[in-house]
Amino acid sequence: MDANDGEGIRAEPRGTAPTPLSVLDLVTVGSGRTATDALHTSVALAKLAESRGYHRHWVAEHHSMPGVASSSPAVILAHLAAHTTRIRLGSGGVMLPNHAPLVIAEQFGTLEALAPGRVDLGLGRAPGTDGATAAALRRTDRLGEGADDFPQQLAELTRFLDDDFPDGHPYARIHAVPGPVQATSPGGVQSPHRPPIWLLGSSGFSARLAGTLGLPFAFAHHFSAQNTLPALDLYRQSFRPSALLDAPYAVIGVSALATDAEEEARRQVRAAALNMIRLRTGRPGLVPTPDEAAAHHFTEAERDFVTSWNSNVIHGTADQVRAGLDDLAKRTGADELMLTANAHSGDVRLRSYELIADTYALPKES
């Protein structure tokens, strides 16, 4: 890839926000709602994010979770591309060990052809699910091998995206299409863009690898807050300039929910925490309503979990959320904040992003 000094990666803050703001969409399905409802919300959210100055909209790969309808990021991103024109779209992320690198190169080459110059390829090495489901996805029960082979899988994927396997390599005559090979065919013209690769992580492994390779890095602060500062420090210390970036660029995922009233925010995040309790105890389901959570008898251990979990969710009125985001940006030095709003209702999620845009005076664009 030719040097482009972070083209398609770096962004500038808008309005009064401390960093660029972006969206992490889990395509959550609430109790009494369907996957169709959730996907309609995702389209509405992408349109809102584009019109209010959010920089990018990412979709995360999950499997075997009734309350998360994002098992096929490439399919969802193609749909979002058809309903937007400017906002960057990407995966946050695709779990590389679950897929053949050639398949990912073909999928994201297709997305790049559909939305030239605005596709990001974020990659993770976790399965995005439980062990049994990961085994079904990968057709093997030797799950550790996929994570251990991540650097090799990443190198292979990069070769497919750039179409530059060396002569004599077993894959030298295999081409990801759409892709650069089309420019070398008689009469061929190919897009000058290719999706930039991001590495995602919740610990130090991907932080170090992203730094060593000179790639942008996205850290899952929203569920691994205790590791945020060590991982970002490791990324920055490990960073080596590359053809893609001349300096580190780090995004952190942040759970943030703004509502018109503080008490409503507490009700919403309590329901989201109950959903997480069920997931972590092997009972994944649809996101419960706030009324369901209010009627639930929390054990002492569950109450402790709710307190701990929600201490990392920035929630309240728009002013309270703004103060929390400002503080987080200052403490971490993150180059970009990617906000995920976990709530039962799509309307509540949409309202949160609108309130945050308003409190930061993000521009309203047609």
Shape, please? globular
Number of strands: 9
Structural class: alpha/beta
Largest sheet: 8 strands, parallel, barrel
Provide the gyration radius in Å: 20 Å
Task: Give helix % range.
Answer: 40-55%
Q: Roughly what fraction of the amino acids lie in strands?
A: 5-15%
Number of helices: 14
Overall pLDDT level: 93
* End-to-end Cα distance: 34 Å
In N-to-C order, the SSE pattern is: EHEHEHEHHHHEHEHEHHHEHEH
Main-sheet strand order equals 1-2-3-4-5-6-7-9
Low-confidence stretches: none
How is this structure best described in words?
It is built from 14 helices and 9 strands. With 366 residues, it is α/β, with parallel strands linked by helices. An 8-stranded parallel barrel has the order 1-2-3-4-5-6-7-9, surrounded by 8 helices.
Concise synopsis of the structure shown:
The protein has 366 residues and is an alpha/beta fold. It contains 14 helices and 9 strands. It has an 8-stranded parallel barrel with strand order 1-2-3-4-5-6-7-9, surrounded by 8 helices.
Features:
alpha/beta; 8-stranded parallel barrel; globular
Helix and strand topology:
Blueprint: E1 21-25, H1 35-51, E2 56-59, H2 73-81, E3 88-95, H3 101-114, E4 119-124, H4 131-138, H5 143-148, H6 150-162, H7 181-184, E5 197-201, H8 204-213, E6 217-219, H9 228-238, E7 250-258, H10 262-280, H11 290-295, H12 300-310, E8 314-316, H13 318-332, E9 336-340, H14 346-359
Parallel strand pairs: 1-2, 1-9, 2-3, 3-4, 4-5, 5-6, 6-7, 7-8, 7-9
Helix pairs in contact: 1-14, 2-3, 3-6, 8-9, 10-12, 13-14
